[in-house]
């Protein structure tokens, strides 16, 4: 593993417009909402804040913003978190997201990418002093692919959160060291919808794949060996940015030299805490809060691991499957 501790996040930044409602509307349905607020968000920016708040790894972000008032709170939030910014000023509006947050903490999100689509291959800054490049899919796919290829050529590890879900070229997957997906994204990439284990088996070209399983926890397959992490038990208030918090926290801990098992446990705790506060970046916990939760919570016992293994379609938590 590289001894360089820095992380570069290249990706999206949006201003989130959030309205609270009893439930998320069905197609054609109008729902009368309640409170309305704006929050800095966007998958890339959320993950950069999570990296920085995890501590221990210098965090930079490459992002594109418009010349408008929507950009200001995004910049302020990132700088307050300690993220060094490489900003591309675009002749397009800053990205926005429209979020309906239901009383059961579920949400529905529509994104207007705007300036996020202005990122280009030549915008990638120097990768000197960078150990990990963290990417998502809210910016042009050809640009994401080019960034991953440049990182691989420079000896920088690539973490890709394959969200929002879409088909990916084999060339991109070949340059990814750690792929993070949820169950829906795994099903799209693998063509297998009813078994996490079988879905993972269809993607042997990626050395390490992490699948987030919502309230159940997460599972990772690295070189044929599985690592299971049950979720921390919490009462969710707002699940917005929970997945982004997981990705950023995991990248930060791996950059610090954590084992995959320890990184998954830390990221799961950070994600759980993010579900207990409103907003995207505003909900992402500081490292001390995560460590407090970890210290107060025993590691998962065998029964919890067995339950999670069965859900994933594994015969036991210690399953190892040789890859082709």
UniProtKB/TrEMBL annotation:
Annotated K(+) binding lies at 238, 240, 274, 277, 279, 283
- Identify the EC number(s): 2.7.1.15
Q: Where, in this chain's numbering, is ATP bound? A: 182, 212-217, 243-244
* Source species, domain of life: Bacteria
Q: Which GO terms describe its cellular component?
A: cytosol
Q: Does the keyword Transmembrane apply?
A: no
User: So which cofactors does this thing need?
Assistant: Mg(2+)
Give the matching PROSITE patterns.
Answer: PFKB_KINASES_2 (PS00584)
Q: What does this protein do?
A: Catalyzes the phosphorylation of ribose at O-5 in a reaction requiring ATP and magnesium. The resulting D-ribose-5-phosphate can then be used either for sythesis of nucleotides, histidine, and tryptophan, or as a component of the pentose phosphate pathway.
- How is this protein named in the record? Ribokinase
- Source organism: Pseudoxanthomonas indica
């Amino acid at each position: 593993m590289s001894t360089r501790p820095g992380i570069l996040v290249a990706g999206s930044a949006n201003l989130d417009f959030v309205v609270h409602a009893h439930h998320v509307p069905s197609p054609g349905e109008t729902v009368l909402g309640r409170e309305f607020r704006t929050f800095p968000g966007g998958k890339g920016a959320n993950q950069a804040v999570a990296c920085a708040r995890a501590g221990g790894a210098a965090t930079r972000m490459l992002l594109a913003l418009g010349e408008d008032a929507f950009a200001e709170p995004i910049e302020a939030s990132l700088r307050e978190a300690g993220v060094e910014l490489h900003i591309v000023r675009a002749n397009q509006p800053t990205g926005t997201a429209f979020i309906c947050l239901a009383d059961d903490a579920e949400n529905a999100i529509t994104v207007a990418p705007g300036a996020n689509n202005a990122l280009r291959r030549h915008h990638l800054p120097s990768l000197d002093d960078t150990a990990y490049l963290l990417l998502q899919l809210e910016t042009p796919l050809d640009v994401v692919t080019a960034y991953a290829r440049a990182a691989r050529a420079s000896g920088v590890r690539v973490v890709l959160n394959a969200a929002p879900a879409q088909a990916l070229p084999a060339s991109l997957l070949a340059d990814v060291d750690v792929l993070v997906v949820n169950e829906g994204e795994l099903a799209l990439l693998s063509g297998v919808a009813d078994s996490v284990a079988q879905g993972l088996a269809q993607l042997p070209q990626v050395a390490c794949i992490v699948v987030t399983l919502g309230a159940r926890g997460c599972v990772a397959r690295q070189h044929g060996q599985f690592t299971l992490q049950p979720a921390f038990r919490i009462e969710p208030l707002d699940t917005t940015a929970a997945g982004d918090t997981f990705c950023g926290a995991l990248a930060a801990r791996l950059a610090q030299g954590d084992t995959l098992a320890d990184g998954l446990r830390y990221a799961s705790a950070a994600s759980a805490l993010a579900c207990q506060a409103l907003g995207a970046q505003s909900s992402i916990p500081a490292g001390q809060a995560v460590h407090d939760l970890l210290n107060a919570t025993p590691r998962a016992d065998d029964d919890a691991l067995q339950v999670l293994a069965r859900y994933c379609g594994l015969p036991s938590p210690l399953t190892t499957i040789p890859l082709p």
